[in-house]
Amino acid sequence: MIRVLLVDDQPLIRSGFRALLDLEDDIEVVAEAADGREGLALIKEQLPDVVLIDIQMPVMDGIEATRRIAADPALAGVHVVVLTNYGMDEYVFDALRAGAAGFLVKDIVPEDFLHAVRVAARGDALLAPAITRKLIDRYVTQPPLIRAGSGLEGLTSREREAVALAAQGLSNDEIADRLVISPLTAKTHINRAMAKLHARDRAQLVVLAYQSGLVAPRNS
């Protein structure tokens, strides 16, 4: 069962997401909060698998709440997905730097929303295509997010290939198909790369792939 916690200051948004999630047999909404401070307290109490959190809220915004979640070792298993609107790249950028595993736009279709929750629960990066390219373009101009020691030189050739494919948005199963290996081996390559590069999660691994030049942002 995937345990989800909703944090948004708009009751209508929360109720809409909850209505969708409550219809699924493998997903349970364990709590709701109207601001980041309340959400943080509930997260520590409930230890959900996935937190869906709005960026702009009163009392404590989603970025600060995400930063505190990422800094708490007791919450290492909590995957934060920020909720945003089109054109809010700067806020999403800050949320990923704070430790979010990915982001969703609020006008996402229900089927994609439910799929995204399951993807986040698995620990995969969740980067909505609509604004990912602009986000990455900004990332590569910033100071490094991840202190990676010796950098990509410490990765095997297979690990580099797997990371490059992950940065293009491929899942472990798709990486396995592309490299003609088993899904378990693909997952192992990704996990080892994350450990070597000290990436907190798959989203940070994807960002590092762009920052390092392993994958280049596409031109418009």
Structural features, described:
The protein is an alpha/beta fold and 220 residues long. The chain folds into two domains: 2-126, 3-Layer(aba) Sandwich (Rossmann fold); 148-212, Arc Repressor Mutant, subunit A. Helix content is 50%, strand content 14%. It is built from ten helices and six strands. The protein has helices at 11-22, 36-46, 62-71, 89-98, 110-121, 129-139, 157-167, 172-179, 183-197, 202-211; strands at 2-7, 27-33, 50-54, 79-84, 102-105, 126-127. It has a six-stranded parallel sheet, sandwiched between helices. Helix 4 (89-98) links the parallel strand 4 and strand 5 (102-105). The longest helix is centred in the C-terminal third of the chain and has 15 residues, at 183-197. It is globular and about 50 Å long. It starts with a strand and ends in a 9-residue tail after the last helix. Residues 144-150 have low confidence and may be disordered.
Biggest sheet statistics: 6 strands, parallel
Please, how many domains? 2
Please trace the helix and strand order, writing H or E for each element. EHEHEHEHEHEHHHHH
Shape: globular
Going by CATH, the homologous superfamily of the largest domain would be Response regulator
Secondary structure tally, helices: 10
Instruction: Give, in spatial order, the strands making up the sheet with the most strands.
Output: 2-1-3-4-5-6
Q: Could you tell me the strand content as a percent range?
A: 5-15%
CATH first level of the largest domain: which class?
Alpha Beta
How far apart, in Å, are the first and last alpha carbons?
Answer: 41 Å
Number of strands: 6
Q: What structural class should be given to the helix and strand makeup?
A: alpha/beta
Unreliable segments of 5+ consecutive residues: 144-150
**Taking all residues together, what is the mean pLDDT?**
82
- Examine the secondary-structure arrangement and name the CATH architecture of the largest domain: 3-Layer(aba) Sandwich
Task: Please give the share of residues in helix.
Answer: 40-55%
Domain Response regulatory: 3-121
GO molecular function: DNA binding
Organism: Streptomyces cahuitamycinicus
Modified residues (4-aspartylphosphate): 54
